[in-house]
Write a structure and sequence with these properties.
By secondary structure, the chain is of the alpha+beta class. Among the domains are: 193 residues, Hypothetical protein af1432 (Orthogonal Bundle); 79 residues, no CATH class; 75 residues, ACT domain (Alpha-Beta Plaits, 2-Layer Sandwich), CATH 3.30.70. It is built from 25 helices and 21 strands.
Length: 723
Amino acid sequence: MATDTAFQDLITKMKAYAPDLDVGQIEQAYEYAKEKHAGQTRVSGEPYYTHPVEVASILADMKMDVATIMTAILHDTLEDTSATYDEVKNKFSEEVADLVNGVSKLNKIESQTFEGKQAENFRKLLLAMSEDIRVLLVKLSDRLHNMRTLYHFKDRPDKTARISHETLDIYAPLAERIGIHQMKEELSDLAFSYLNPEAQESITNRLTFLRKEGGSVVKKIMKHLETLIAKEGIKGEVSGREKTRYSIWKKMQRKNVTFEQLSDIMAFRIVVDNLDECYHTLGVLHSNYPTVPGRFKDFISTPKPNGYRSIHTTVLGPEKQRIEIQIRTHEMHHEADLGVAAHWAYKEGDKKVNVKDLTQYRWLRELLDILEQDHRPEDFLENTKLELFQDKVFVFSPKGDLIELPNGATPVDFAYAVHSDVGDKCVGSKVNGRIAPLNTKLANGDQVDIITSKTQTPSPAWERFVVTGKARSHIKRFIRLQQRSEYIILGKAMLKKIFQLEEYDFTEKAVAGIIKQMRVEEADDIYANIGSGHFSARDVFKIIFPAHKTETVKMPKEGFQDYAIARATGSNQPMPIKGLIPGMAVHFARCCHPLPGDRIVGIVTTGKGVTIHTIDCDTLETFADTPERWIDVSWGDGPDSPESHVGRLNVTFLNQPGGLGAVSTIIGKNGGNIVNLKITNRSLDFWDILVDVYVKDTKHLSNIIAALRATPEITSVDRAKGR
């Protein structure tokens, strides 16, 4: 029988919440795993079977049922050993075999690219979850233990970065969405430590300093809160907790503030016996302390989609500083820690719970619907990220059903959330009883009514403002089906125009003669590639008539806008700007340094083609009297320009040794490249500089700004505009 210390610790944990536990079947699973993994070791040199025991121990902390614990112990046997499904089924049970098989399927990745691999992993994960969410709980625990031991790969920075990115992109958000808050925070913090160790160390040092300086303040606030509620006859447990380093970092990014400007690094929690005392406690707090406007949320009357319930309020506390306070019952606190795992708290005779029985997990069914629309793994990952990473708003249907949508959602997103057919046939909407444009941003509490028509089809323009993955995937699917015929018509017209300009008669036979040479299957493929901007009409003409010598011919000026991707003069790569005529030269304004992600506008400049400005650029005022020179453009979804873009920063840092070096080091470590630097002000204490940095897009620039703000030597960083 098993005697290993880690396994005995696991049994001790389980007996603490399941005194009548039948240890025999768990020991049998452990011995079977040891036998099958015999001779296998982890990178640390430890026997491999120690890993599944640690995974099971994480699940035991969540008080999981016996089947889940056994699955954790056996979760790698089908993939990494000679064990078979039938063998596990006969030796243990069909339930355990199905769970182990579900976990094993997640690891069989077929895609080759990193993005494709990540997306395919997510796809299989969700498919497995559709059968039993316990598969996800085992996988999340497996990922958590792997992250805890990732330091063994310290000599493989590429591997640690890949695993950490995947953890932040997929596993931490999933842990949050099913309500396992503690696991989400630990996964995020561990990934953050590998992806941005400098920022993590900086925040850690500041938190250490804060604890020394403000430790007594925290104790005073807790004591004051305890005394206050006790006077009102409320029995409550008061605790204070420090926010994680990653959550602090994210807040610095989201709110564009420095560490010192954050007011809620510490949060306080009051746990009471029943629901009435929650609201009684809230009344006591609000009658004694001034409230901070806009910082009150009642997740008890309207729980989060993952089932989370609590009251959040921010007040000016006893020490005259803003403090965040959470109020909940003991039951709510238990569910907040365990989330969906609370549904499998150990009970004799527990049955498998299907995700369809958990009505609050509507988001999962929405993601499964996206699977049916997106055939490319990369598209699926993009659309599911939209679902996972945005804050939510809650709106009502005319019948009073509450529907959760991402922040910024529109009536079109609502229509697709109701049903795919409603979205496809949507022609108008009413918000709170009044006719509203389809691009209206919905707010919490809005009542939305969709007007439909049998003859309506999805509009490509909807893609510009929808925010849900489901809506976007349906619209893209329709566009893919309709766009080819439009590209064929456009490409054929462009080729005919070249024939006409060169005084040749256009014939289908001439085009058919180069099908093999162009490596396509039919003439329509040539027209479609011309219309989409992948082939140049003039290049195709030259292939048809290689002996023809031509003078410079003017490009066609009508009919191409909004259909073709703009092309740089003399370049074979599509430019990432939509809304320009093919062949038109493109320049990016130095006054505002537009980046992919900014809203932009094109200004026709004589002799220079089109100059791209940000929509809020001050220079645009000089063109107010010539609206005919303005062109409606936007960043495209196709291949990006091969060149980087210049982002300009205003940086203020301490005048001390290493100050300027810290600026350049942080920019370089975050993938930026300084191309110009100008000192705008010097003093005994501070330097102000303008820095031009090559970046990919606005998100890349925002990451650099956040990294700079987390550096002690740097006092302020902002995006600059102007020469």
